[in-house]
Structures are given as C-alpha cells and as structure tokens.
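Chain A, query sequence.
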Amino acid sequence: MRQIFLLVKLYLDSIILYVQNVERLKDFYTTVLGLQLVEDDPPLWVVLRAGNSYIALHKIGDPYFNQLKDGDKFHNNTKIVFKIEEDINELRQQLIASNVPMRELKTFDNYGYWLCDGEDPEGNVFQLKQAK
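Chain A, predicted structure.
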C-alpha cells in the first residue's frame, strides 16, 4: 500500500448527496432533523447547515437516473468536499503524480471557489475546494 503524506490541511466542508427528489429530502432534513436551509435553488440544488459543515442535495442527472431504471449500477450518490487553503492546482498535480485519478479544475460564474474532483481507490468521489 502506498503512503502519501501531503503537507495540506483538509477541512470537511460539505457532503453532496445526489438525489431524485430535492424538495422531498429538503422537507425531511429541515422539518424532521431541524437542519437550517442555507441555499435553495429548486428543483436542482439545496444546501443545509449541519453544525460546522453542510449537506448539499443535488438532483441526480436524468442520464444517470435513466440508467438506474434500465438496471445499470449507479456507483455512488455521495461526494465528500474538502476545503483547502493551499494552491489547488499544485495539490492536484501532486495527487496525479501519486496516481490518484483527478479531473480538471472547474468553477462557475459568480462562485467564489475553484473545484477539482478526484477518486479514492474504490472509485468514491471527493472534491477539493479552494477560495479564488
């Protein structure tokens, strides 16, 4: 087993759940569990505060949902997001050099962060998140 020691602090920022019905789960988490609604963009996206971290509900894309109906396996519906202070591109390159599958950097209009997804050895997706 390889050992990688990155000189980086990872802070759990959020966990993204890919779901079929954002509104139904928003109601559950806010009314049953009492989580605070932070961001609401129906029907695609909701962010809830869970202590010092967040749970985001993201509508699963139709192509993936259709695969479920057709019997294909949907590998994972969760993404762990780590906020970092270090340079995201340098960290991405270090991880690639250590044979960790990493995707391209991305961001969105009016969004204050750079994002980069990677995969652990079992294919679970994690995301690095750095302020612009």
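Residues 108 and 114 are 8 Å apart (CA to CA). DSSP finds three helices and seven strands in the chain.
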